[in-house]
Design a protein that fits this description.
397 residues; six-stranded antiparallel beta barrel; mainly beta; eleven-stranded antiparallel sheet
């Protein structure tokens, strides 16, 4: 017995599933490639200048600020400063290429962490900002002037914004104004005192790497070292790439896969699926059919009236008299009553002439009547002629 499920009772909901992956410098599943504008030496099986050309043509082609032609998502901030640009490619780069089997539909945004110089004093952590930028958690500033007498300090960030602050010493509540040995820099900016920790400083250029500067704008926070192209499974290091990934490193991220949850509501009404399908157990009364020839010339059997199925108990008495299948009881040793007499006779028919079948398995078919899914019930459910039963089937694809 088949029944068509209306579309209103079918629900298909997609949801994203993520899987964590971890690779290191010794992993063979992924590839570390070098790109160089002027070198034809091989990196893996590919020429370095060929890799460089592909990077520039696909990702660094000058359309980074065009929302219709760029690859990847753009932050809400815009800057013309070279150091803070989302896409920057010099003459060389390093590429971590992840096969599609470990990426799925794409790398989850914000899930990438890359640890360089692992287990060394110079260990550095890089993360992606969910907009395709790989950056460290440190901030970079360029000090242009320090005046000890006036306790003033001027510097610019990577977005070329200028700042004028004041050095704070211990007498004013700081931990020391500018101590190279302790790597501390205590300044006052806009009336607030900030105690900054310096990680490195270049005396000649004035470039200082600071652990965190809270008052920097979003586009100036972090030191951008490369990009993550989520759908392609590529992690590209573009700034000072020759100094990166030289020792042990570890990469962690999450891949993405869309899973669809199918939910089907099956309503078994009082007059449905409550008669055995065993041909020897039922008798059909009133079924009318006719033959017709289709447009393809084939003869088809068309059911005009499906009739009513009744559970067979005994169709003929011992004396040979035929009985009406709609009436009778266990007392007369005839056929069982039809379901229209269920309320009248079921309470006194102790032999089970109205015994209803139990539902144990539900099959789902496509429009071509091909079985596509089977649901097994944990407990058999009785399908009675006076009680509707609802089933909900869920599965993921």
């Amino acid at each position: 017995m088949l029944k068509r499920i209306p579309k209103s009772d079918i629900s298909i909901r997609p949801f994203k599933a993520y899987k964590e992956w971890s690779f290191s410098s010794g992993s063979t599943e992924i590839s570390l490639l070098e790109a160089n504008e002027s070198s034809s030496a091989l990196s893996g099986q590919f020429a370095k200048n060929s890799i460089y050309g592909q990077l520039r043509a696909q990702f660094y082609n000058g359309h980074e600020d065009n929302p219709f032609t760029r690859t990847g998502h753009k932050t809400k901030s815009y800057t013309t400063a070279i150091l803070s640009k989302e896409r920057f490619l010099s003459g060389s780069a390093k590429v971590i290429s992840i096969p599609k089997i470990y990426v799925g539909e794409g790398i989850k945004k914000g899930s990438v962490t890359l640890i360089d110089n692992q287990n060394l004093p110079t260990e550095t952590l890089y993360t992606d900002d969910s907009f395709g930028n790989l950056q460290s958690g440190n901030d970079k500033i360029i000090i242009s002037k320090i005046d000890i007498e006036s306790s003033s300090i001027d510097f610019t960030d990577v977005s070329d914004y200028t700042y004028a602050g004041r050095l704070i010493d211990e007498t004013e509540g700081g931990i020391g104004d500018f101590d190279i040995e302790l790597n501390t820099l205590t300044i006052s900016y806009n009336g607030t005192i900030y105690e900054l920790v310096m990680l490195s400083m270049d005396i000649e250029t004035g470039v200082v790497i600071v652990e965190n500067i809270p008052f920097l704008p979003e586009e100036s926070q972090g030191v951008k070292v490369g990009n993550v192209f989520y759908n392609q499974g590529l992690i590209v290091l573009t700034r000072d790439s020759a100094d990166k990934l030289l020792h042990e490193w570890q990469l962690d991220y999450k891949s993405t896969q869309t899973i669809y949850e199918h939910e089907y509501l099956l309503i078994v009404n009082e007059d449905e699926f409550n008669v055995s399908t065993n041909p020897s157990a039922i008798v059909n009364v009133g079924r009318e059919t006719e033959r017709s020839i289709g447009t393809d010339g084939k003869v088809k059997l068309v059911v005009k009236n499906p009739g009513v199925n009744y559970i067979r108990k005994k169709s003929t008495l011992e004396n040979g008299n035929e009985l009406d299948y709609r009436f009778g009881s266990s007392v007369s040793m005839s056929v069982s009553g039809g379901f229209e007499h269920y309320e009248l006779s079921s309470s006194v028919d102790s032999t089970g002439s109205f015994l209803s079948p139990f539902i144990t398995t539900i099959g789902l078919y496509d429009d071509d009547c091909q079985l596509v899914a089977v649901a097994k019930l944990p407990q058999a459910i009785k399908s009675e002629p006076d009680i509707p039963v609802n089933f909900i089937i869920r599965f993921d694809t």
